[in-house]
Design a protein that fits this description.
InterPro entries: PTS_EIIB-like_sf, PTS_EIIB_2, PTS_EIIB_2/3. It is an enzyme of class 2 (transferase). This is PTS galactitol transporter subunit IIB. The protein has a 4-stranded parallel sheet, covered by helices on one side. 39% of the residues lie in helices and 23% in strands. It has one domain: Response regulator (Rossmann fold).
């Protein structure tokens, strides 16, 4: 069964698109079945329920108990592998 990852940023336009694509591609290359959905940080409270993990580039609130990884590594290129390992730990 696919794991759902919610990717959020301030406006759900450019930043979350880049992060979502990198997360999805990397995890699928590693053999993980994931569904990645983008949203604005302000939409997290409505969309967190049902997600297995939230990956965000900005602080988010009211995540309904869903684990959160806040990172800029997918944008900067530094620390991506560490963050991928954190994501994998959460979706196993």
């Amino acid at each position: 069964m696919a794991k759902k990852i919610l990717v959020s940023c301030g406006t759900a336009v450019a930043t979350s698109t880049v992060v979502a694509k990198k997360v999805e591609e990397t995890l699928k290359e590693k053999g993980y079945d994931v569904v990645v959905e983008q949203c604005k940080a302000s939409e997290v409270p409505q969309k967190a329920e049902g997600a297995d993990l939230i990956v965000t580039t900005t602080p988010v609130s009211d995540t309904k108990g869903t684990p959160v990884i806040q990172t800029l590594s997918f944008l900067t290129g530094f620390g991506i592998e560490d963050d991928i390992e954190k994501i994998i730990d959460h979706i196993k």
